[in-house]
Each structure stands twice: as structure tokens, then as C-alpha cells.
Design a protein that fits this description.
Length: 236
Amino acid sequence: MTKPSTIPDDDPASTHSTPLGRRVQAELEELISQGHLRSGERLNEVTLARRLGVSRGPVREAARALERKGLVTVIMNRGAFVRTLTIDEAMEIYDLNAVLFGFAASRVAAAVTAAQAIELRDLVDGMDRAGAAMDREAFFALNVRFHESILAFAGNRQLEAVYAEYTRKLLLLRRRSFDRQATMAEANAEHRRVLDAILAGDPEQARRRAEEHTRSGRARFLSAIDYTAPDESGAM
């Protein structure tokens, strides 16, 4: 069984859920984020209930909560499916996240503490080791923590919540961006440049580098899926 992810008490998607429903929701979200449940895949209530050691009711409740989060699509008389995110939606989210992540990095650069600096440096060093070992799962987990830490250190809960809401949807696609060692090394070099600007106490440089990193992440994703923009005729 996967380790449950943490869901904030004020998460709007879990406001009306039972404690068991929230626990199952966290575990289903983890299965989706790790790629064990893929885009378009049906959530088999019987199989998932057996896997998670619960009845079908909490699985159904969790699916409804994940629908509100944008990770699941519930189709009447057919069931719940892991949502398929379109390329256009993904690109819009990357554009928004560039602004949000840049703003967060600038705030951290203006007031970073020694403990925060140590934590961010440890995460970047850990990603270097994971990339060298071609440990994609470890790299992805540390990458998520690096971004989440900067948002948390920015000290703006609304900013953090909005960023988490939209980034969560990219979990349906983003893992594919780190299939190659070179892309992990490239991404972490960008992380280190963001970190250097934060440690230098340069908010403007931190903002610019964080935005550049997000745009580069978008390019890596498009490269990973071998995306070709449509021509004037609309062909792909």
C-alpha cells in the first residue's frame, strides 16, 4: 500500500469528506501521481477497495473529491476515470505557474532563513544524486518537494493553495519529463540557479530564474511527448 500523502485540513475538496474518505483520497491521489493509475484509466471500485482495505463507499467518496480537484472525471452510468489533461490545458497551467513560482521565489529571496537555505540546498544536492543514479522516482519526489518548499517559505497561504491546485493537475503528465538522465541534470541545474539567487538575496534574479525554470519545464514536457505544434491546416 502506498504511503498516504498529506492533505491540508483546509483543503476545500475534503471539506465534506469523512476521515476515512480523506485517507482513501490521499492514497488514490498518490497512486495517480506515481503513475500507477494512468490518464483515462477507470477507477475500479472493487479492486481499489480491496487494495486499500476499505469498502467501496470510501473509494466512491474519494473519487468525487478528486473530481473536484480536477484529477478524476466521473461519468454517469460509467464510473470514475483518471482525468485526461489536454495539451492546451497543460500549457495554460505552465504559464500560470511560471508567474506564481517566480513570485514565490522572489519572496523567499527577500527573507530566506538559514534553516530554509539548508533545506533547499539539501533538496538540490539530493536531486543531483538521484539524477546520477538514474533514480527517476526519487528525483521526481525531491523535485516536487523543492517547489513545494519554496511556495511554503514564501509565507502566502493563498499563493501556496492556488499553486498546489494547478500543479496537482500536471501530475497527470509531468512525470514523463524526467525519463532521461540529461533532462534531470538540466532541470536540477536550473534549480541550483534559482537557489543561488535566493541565497544571494536577489528577489528579481530569483523571480526571473524561477520563471525561466518553469518555461524550460514546459519545453521538456513537450519534448518528452514529441509534441509538434499544429500547422495552419490544423494537422498535428
